Task: structure prediction
Amino acid sequence: MAEIRNYTLNFGPQHPAAHGVLRLVLELDGEVVVRADPHIGLLHRATEKLAETKTWLQTVPYLDRLDYVSMMCNEHAYCLAVEKLLGVEVPLRGQYIRVMMDEVTRILNHLLNIGTHGLDIGAMTMVLYTFREREDLMDVYEAVSGARLHAAYYRPGGVYRDLPDQMPQYVENKFKNAATVKRLNAARQGSLLDFIEDFTDRFPAYVDEYETLLTDNRIWKQRTIGIGVVSPERALALGFSGPMLRGSGIEWDLRKKQPYEVYDRVDFDVPVGVNGDCYSRYLVRIEEMRQANRIIRQCIDWLRKNPGPVITGNHKVAPPPREKMKAGMEELIHHFKLFTEGMHVPPGEAYAGIEHPKGEFGVYAISDGGNKPYRIKLRSPGFAHLAATDEMAKGHMIADATAIIGTIDLVLGDTDR
Amino acid sequence: MSARLELLCQNLRNALGDRIAKLQTALGEVTLEVAAGDYLETARLLRDDPNLRFEQLIDLTGVDYSAWGDGAWTGLRFAAVCHLTSVTLNWRLRLRAFAPDDAFPVLPSVVDIWNSANWYEREAFDLYGILFEGHPDLRRILSDYGFVGHPFRKDFPISGYVEMRYDPDQRRVVYQPVTIEPRENTPRIIREDSYGDADHG
Result:
């Protein structure tokens, strides 16, 4: 009898289901995966090394480019680490804005994940629905920061500026007639908070829509139930965090367990999965979107009632307001020193981990007292999750490899750094 | 120091005894330093001791201390720094071990204790050249196939040594020495402690 040899298949680096540039070398026995060896680093930009050559403030925009579907959460972890080293307090309004934008980001991220995960394994319609809602939230990003993706909105000490009082409007052109423009602008008549509130009113119904498309969908269930099962013990040993850990039935959410900012003042529940398979993780993410919606509403409520500063008044860390800088000598000096030399961070080391939509995103910052970081280590959740691909994919069919890549919510910018 | 961190330090002292080379609390975080020889055993105790229960390795990274404080560093050069989390007892710890030999840094691998260390140790090897003894598959992970050197070491220039381009004559991709000039827009400065104090000059 002829000797049967395993077949090695190269999946990626340019594959639509690879969510970026992931090269997965699959060793197959027939259609069954025997070994999955992810080759990463194709998107490695040495962000950590670049950070060592930039001032503490200049590093912030680089953080957006790590996980480019949840930009503000990356900045958040970095700002928390720097604030910890500096010992700077963020004004309460700044903290509420951060929490609100983090939850907006969480919805953005989960929408992309559920949409593209559906796309990967055959539910082609999902992505059309989820991207419709992403559009509104992208407008929120644009209104606060001027950029739809790479916001650079958070700063050590707070956020760059307060929320805008009005939303940008659509204007009539040869593609959009007056009636369309009127419909598009209907929700944009008030402030940004009104716009987000209008979104949160509509959003739960949208989530119901997604659930009618997927939750009881026979094909979706066949493709996800029992696929990539991770037991709670293995999930801990493999360094899982976020929805991946909760999907395996461990109740661990940094927002509850080690609250940062004002998460201890808002009311929300933490969904926990039962079976630890792709379907459990999908259900966790769906529920997280509903909870994020709840948190956003509470933040809107608080932000309406409480005006105030959004960034620290310590001008060794944050620049003085523009008008004051134009009029006062002291403020001018602060401005000049801050943007030429940068802030000086006391020697020491700090680790700040946040509940990023994908898991625990941590920043380990070491300072030797200079105006630049000595070392920044970015702990990205996707790195640990992708490392477990081999264990999750072993014994499954080759088509399930895409379901597993989809469920770990992979963004290579974040994994490769 | 909060009572919980005090309790954690106490538990660490009870469990580890004289394996502790240095134990300090700063900025609300506990840092434990051990000698390379005690590293593996300490890791095992940290995971298994019922009063510590660090069952999760969140992060492991290499650090090159050679340029610390503009040459003020006198200790060993390379260290592996682990960030541990206990999900059951809800606390964190930073564990650091310095590699005894600067020219040939070797540390034991903790893969068998925390499986998540696998890729983190590959990364530390790739970027810093720290060898982890006992690692099942210590390959490069982030840098290119065939890359030479360890790019995150402090003596490795930010622009690297080689660049890649397509050569139309040879009709293939070639490597050549870098042609870009190193450039530093903002110089690195460490000010003395009293710098910028209003009551100080």
